[in-house]
From TrEMBL:
Transmembrane segments: none annotated. Keywords: Magnesium, Metal-binding, Nucleotide-binding, Nucleotidyltransferase, RNA-binding, Transferase, tRNA processing. InterPro entries: Bact_CCA-adding_enz_type3_sf (IPR050264), CCA-adding_enz_C (IPR032810), NT_sf (IPR043519), PolA_pol_head_dom (IPR002646), PolyA_RNA-bd (IPR032828). This is CCA tRNA nucleotidyltransferase. Belongs to the tRNA nucleotidyltransferase/poly(A) polymerase family. The keyword Magnesium applies. Residues 298-441 form the CCA-adding enzyme C-terminal domain. Its cofactor is Mg(2+). Its EC number is 2.7.7.72. It holds the Pfam family tRNA_NucTran2_2. It is an enzyme of class 2 (transferase). One of its GO terms (molecular function) is CCA tRNA nucleotidyltransferase activity. It comes from the Bacteria.
């Protein structure tokens, strides 16, 4: 038992003291101990105790049964809630996720034995210090992720721990020890038993960590082959073009590292080139091209994010950013207005961040010029917005009702005319005048070319 001291929140200390005065053992446990020892601010303070759930409820005035079948009661101190869980021993696991039964115990060590990694299997009490039965402190010093006990048994209990190993490695910059790695490769197929929602949560945590490039490790260990096979397809895909010196995987990893740790943006950079293997072609001179890869990548992103049960808002933003990340446009106001029309103002600043990250992961020889052009585009974008320039149907000086009154039937023709009017105004802001637009609409309604789709250009 280590005599190191830790600072814990006042309310957590109140709970420990209350349980102790009632005759029970109680410790803060797991991630909060780990993070405190690393000098990080813990997000949650979980408490483990020898008291049974009904005994915990008897000690405190305000509790909530949040997981009482597994021994967990939330104790409310004012408006703050703390999860208090009885020491337990898990029964046999049949589905790589849930124990068939939970048995309560009075022994802290028995509870710590069932935890995933040594750095998460430490407990602390101000009176007794740190309980570190598996050398978690040593592994923190060595920067090692190591399973408690036999790794294969820990992964049999909950296969998601396979991804959690990579997640902690990415968050902390730690290595996974040899036996734990071997057990991961041996047990990785069990991830098929884990729900899409839980896979999604761990994937996102890896991506928004300090080391999103550890996705390479997830691939090396066979994890992506099970949960994200689309990633494996970009490994080793060459890019013989003036813009690139890295293969698609290396470019992807660097692009993720170049952008802020935001869920939408990191997911976008992860998947922005997933379509390249499908469209890769070699042209004269040995150069390789990836025509319309953003659109193919967007289709992959849509499929993946539905499969992993992402919320609609995240999915639609990522798919749109992937689709448009390669849009070619220059720094003129007309070109920026057209880009705004295609991409959408709501995600345009994210779109600029995506293009910036993409550029920085290209051939160093082309980066300065491309970044300088992007800076000019961003400057123009702010000018267009500040001046209230028109680039959408909603900003036109006329609306659908005006066109109906002018004799254009509601339906596809009406929508097509409005689109063409918007394109005309994007080209020339002076056209955003009711009379001029009605005059142009009169010509467009009988022109078969009105249904010609917009043309877009991709890298």
């Amino acid at each position: 038992m280590e005599r190191l001291s830790m600072r814990i929140p006042e309310n957590a200390a109140v709970i420990l003291k209350g349980l102790s005065e009632a005759g029970y053992e109680a410790y803060v446990v797991g991630g909060c101990v780990r993070d405190s020892l690393l000098g990080r601010e813990p997000k949650d303070w979980d408490i483990t105790t020898s008291a049974r759930p009904e005994q915990v409820k008897a000690v405190f005035a305000h509790t909530i049964d949040t997981g009482i079948e597994h021994g967990t009661v939330t104790v409310m101190i004012g408006k703050e809630g703390y999860e208090v869980t009885t020491y337990r021993i898990d029964g046999e696991y049949e589905d790589s996720r849930h124990p068939k039964e939970v048995q309560f115990t009075s022994q802290l060590l028995e509870d710590l034995k069932r935890r995933d990694f040594t750095i998460n299997a430490m407990a602390y009490n101000p009176d007794r210090g740190i309980v570190d039965a598996f050398d978690g402190i040593g592994d923190l010093e060595r920067k090692i992720i190591r399973c408690v006990g036999v790794p294969q048994e820990r992964f049999d209990e909950d296969a998601l721990r396979i991804m959690r190993a990579v997640r902690f490695s990415a968050q902390l910059g730690f290595e996974i020890d040899g036996p734990t790695k071997e057990a991961i490769t041996e047990k990785v197929q069990q991830l098929e038993n884990i729900s899409a929602e839980r896979i999604q949560m761990e994937l996102v945590k890896i991506l928004v960590s300090e080391h999103p490039e550890y996705m390479r490790l997830a691939c090396d260990l066979g994890i992506t082959a099970v949960v994200l096979p689309e990633y494996d397809r970009i490994r080793g895909v060459s890019q013989y073009t003036p813009n690139h010196i890295y293969d698609v995987e290396e470019h992807t990893l660097r692009a993720m590292m170049n952008i802020v740790p935001d869920k939408v943006l990191r997911l976008t950079m992860l998947m922005h080139d997933f379509g390249k293997p499908d469209v890769k072609k070699m042209v004269e001179g040995g150069r390789e091209i990836f025509y319309k890869h953003p659109e193919v990548s967007a289709a992959y992103a849509e499929k993946i994010m539905r499969r992993l049960k992402f919320d609609n808002d995240t999915r639609t933003k990522v798919v749109r950013l992937v689709k448009w990340h390669g849009l070619k446009y220059d720094a003129s106001e007309v070109s920026v207005r057209r880009a705004l029309n295609r991409v959408g103002q709501d995600i345009f600043e994210d779109f600029i961040k995506v293009q910036h990250a993409d550029i920085e992961a290209k051939n160093p020889a082309v980066i300065p010029g491309k970044l300088a052009l992007l800076a000019e585009k961003e400057k123009t974008y702010h000018k267009v917005i500040a001046e209230g320039q028109c680039f959408t149907v909603r900003q036109l000086a006329i609306g659908g009702l005006d066109l109906i009154r002018a004799g254009i039937e509601p339906g596809p023709l009406l929508g097509a005319v409005l689109d063409k009017l918007t394109e005309a105004v994007i080209d020339d802001q002076r056209m955003n005048n009711k009379e001029k637009l009605l005059e142009l609409a009169e010509k467009l309604k009988d022109d078969p070319a009105v249904f010609t789709p917009k043309e877009d250009f991709f890298m």
